[in-house]
Design brief:
The chain is α+β, with helices and mostly antiparallel strands. Helices cover 24% and strands 34% of the residues. It has five helices and eleven strands, in the order βαββαββαββββαββα. The strands form two sheets. Strands 1, 2, 3, 4, 5, 8, 9, 10 and 11 form a nine-stranded mixed beta sheet that branches. A two-stranded antiparallel ribbon has the order 6-7. A hairpin with a 7-residue loop joins β2 and β3. It is elongated and about 55 Å long. This is TIGR03936 family radical SAM-associated protein. InterPro entries: DUF2344. Pfam families: DUF2344. Residues 3-196 form the DUF2344 domain.
């Protein structure tokens, strides 16, 4: 069997789609594209598809990952093109590489996020971020299916900086014609996971910052933290193996 690793984007209105529906859509697309999938054994066989840290519902992403196993060798670029053609707009396959082995989730321990706060000036956001970074601990509440849970956001926050928006901010930037502070942050994966809305809650706790309209979050990258606080691309080792 051949293992292939895909990076895909979740854009536009599809950011409101649940991960369960995303998974179903991918499996239908694999069938429509005629991909020779490998299947599990047992009474109810299912295609061998492994998802890695899916973004929360309501969050856009430029860096989602999934691994599929097939029973015939495929050209990664050809698979990217045929699969992208049958997926709905907004669910876009960006890259496919052949696995060089190893465990893909172990190559990811942090994510880079872009948080757009319409109606919040960059100056106001800069003040709030400074207060957040200066705090040794910032506890917030999250409502879960098991009730309210308290978590400390600050240990997971690797870096945070405010960016001035521009008209070419990206594919899924939205309408930034009004004042809009943009927070670029790297968040370490912890247990429990600190989500973008938890970072926004922390800004409210330390600086009483509440955007007048809902903020928009986009995951820009995932990977393993390096010594400078940057992210190492989880597919880098697979690309190197393909070139050898």
């Amino acid at each position: 069997m051949q293992r292939l690793r895909l990076r895909y984007a979740k854009r536009g209105r599809l950011r409101f789609t649940s991960h369960r529906d995303i998974a179903r859509t991918f499996e239908r697309a694999l069938r429509r594209a005629g991909v020779p999938m490998a299947y599990s054994q047992g009474f109810s066989p299912h295609p061998k598809v492994s998802w890695v840290g899916a973004a929360p519902t309501g969050v856009a992403s430029e860096a989602e990952y999934v691994e599929v196993q097939v029973v015939e060798r495929l050209d990664p670029d050809a698979l990217r093109d045929v699969l992208d053609a049958v997926l709905p707009p907004g669910l876009d396959v960006l890259e496919v590489v052949e696995s060089a082995g190893g465990n893909l989730p172990e190559r990811i321990d942090a994510g880079a996020w872009r948080l757009e706060l319409p109606g919040v000036s960059p100056e106001r956001l800069t003040e709030a971020v400074a207060a957040l970074l200066a705090a040794p601990s910032v506890e917030v509440e999250r409502l879960t299916k098991d009730g309210r849970r308290v978590l400390d956001v600050r240990p997971a926050l690797v870096s945070a900086q405010v960016e001035v928006h521009s008209s070419d901010a990206g594919h899924d930037a939205g309408d930034l014609s009004q004042p809009c502070g943009i927070l670029m942050t790297v968040v370490r994966q912890t247990t429990p996971t600190v989500r973008p809305d938890d970072v926004l809650s922390a800004l409210r706790v330390v600086a009483d910052l509440v955007p007048p309209v809902p903020a928009k979050a986009t995951r820009m990258a995932q990977g393993r933290l390096d010594d400078e606080g940057g992210l190492v691309d989880p597919l880098a080792l697979d690309r190197v193996a393909e070139e050898v």
